[in-house]
Amino acid sequence: MLISLQIRAKYLALMSCVALLSACAMQRPVVQVPQHLFDDQSFAIAKQTPDAAAIFAPTAEMKQFIAKEILTQIRSSSHQRALFNALYTKAQLKLEYDSSYTRNAAETFSARSGNCLSLVIMTAAIAKEMGMDISYQSVITPETWSRNGALYFNVGHVNIVLGKRHFDDRNHLDKNHQMTIDFYPPEEIAGQRTLELEEKTIVAMYFNNRAAESMSAGDLNQAYHWARAALTADPSYAAGYNTLGVVYLRHKNDELAYNALDAALRLDPSSTVAMSNIIQAMEQTNRLADAKAMQEKLASRQPFPPFHFFKLGMKAMEDQDYQTAKRWFERELDRAPDYHEFHFWLGMAHLKLGDMKAAEQHLTAAKSNSTSQEVYSMYSSKLDRFHAAQSKFQ
């Protein structure tokens, strides 16, 4: 059984000018914790110590919620349905999407908001407290990107499966006794492939997200410790090596950056994110022939990098060529129909061209697709000013 919720969020994947959380391979190699890639002495002690146990730890408030809002439904409903009804259908938590940072279970429950990974973690924590069997899935979706300043993020998607494992006489998993909770609209995940993830990978994803978020905030010391924790949790998680490599690039430790990114590509040779980053590391370590070969390989797989058309559109806006800007923004939206920033700037291009109806449509779409309360408030304010300006001419 699949239950789908339209709550926007995902997990991040990081890259110096791009980011990655790669989908996990079905049969991943056994990899040891890469102690040789860590450089603790070059970084200050972490302000926040990564703690894997704290990610799923339930609070007293969460336990009380289970007793009052979930267990009271068990007589008339399954454990899975009772949990889903209490958390989402009845909306006692009034959950909202917020990508400001990846929260653990307790923080998500307290804030009543989080991204997709946060919501999966919170749901898992409650299901565990109820004694339910759970599993996690990576959903193979079209490549999606976001950005924060100079950092670009490849955004992946996970969901959670609830229920006791029931087996038939052939020892096959009976899917009819499980409930999949997904935080995407059903039309966006229909027919998509999924890969089961181990919980250690979910832990690594959490730490990797925190590393990306710390780096985006300019805190390389904290980013290093989160990235280190991700690889300690799951040494076979390729995205963690990419993130560690980007930390080293920004910390000017180019040789270790190269080694970490090389490890990422060994685990995930198809990663265009790691390819893009290792080119910079190759150039910085005088591996110029290797950098050229990798650039050619990357160009053959990704002729138009993320935000390529958006950047052309922004250049056209600077040149006051709004018709050309509109075409570039439309082309970028063809690749990412829901990304708020593309809608906003397309709206601005329409505004400059005097098409008020189209401008309002895309400004509204930017607001609707906001990824945090801060961004939502910003677009709300811009829409209010737009409507106020319009009213003066009516």
Jot down its keywords.
394 residues; alpha+beta; Serine Threonine Protein Phosphatase 5, Tetratricopeptide repeat; 3 domains; 5-stranded mixed β-sheet; globular; disordered N terminus; signal
How would you describe this protein?
The longest helix is centred in the C-terminal third of the chain and has 20 residues, at 373-392. Strand 3, helix 4 and strand 4 form a beta-alpha-beta unit. The termini are far apart. The protein has three domains: 2-42 and 49-249, no CATH class; 250-301, no CATH class; 308-392, Tetratricopeptide repeat domain (Serine Threonine Protein Phosphatase 5, Tetratricopeptide repeat, Alpha Horseshoe). It has a five-stranded mixed β-sheet. A three-stranded antiparallel β-sheet has the order 2-7-6. Helix 8 (220-233) packs antiparallel against helix 9 and helix 13 packs antiparallel against helix 14 (322-335). The chain has 394 residues and is an alpha+beta fold. The protein is built from 17 helices and ten strands.
In short:
The chain is an alpha+beta fold. The protein contains 17 helices and ten strands. TPR repeats lie at residues 238-271.
Strand order of the largest sheet: 1-9-8-5-10
Mean pLDDT: 85
Rg (CA only) = 22 Å
**Topology order in helix (H) and strand (E) letters:** EEHHHEHEHEEEEEHEHHHHHHHHHHH
Protein name: Tetratricopeptide repeat protein
TPR repeats: 238-271
Keywords: Repeat, Signal, TPR repeat
InterPro entries: TPR-like_helical_dom_sf, TPR_rpt, Ycf3
Element layout with pairings:
Blueprint: E1 2-4, E2 11-15, H1 52-55, H2 60-70, H3 79-89, E3 96-97, H4 105-111, E4 113-114, H5 116-129, E5 134-139, E6 144-148, E7 151-156, E8 158-162, E9 179-182, H6 186-189, E10 194-197, H7 199-216, H8 220-233, H9 238-250, H10 254-267, H11 272-284, H12 288-301, H13 308-318, H14 322-335, H15 340-352, H16 356-368, H17 373-392
Parallel strand pairs: 1-9, 3-4
Antiparallel strand pairs: 2-7, 5-8, 5-10, 6-7, 8-9
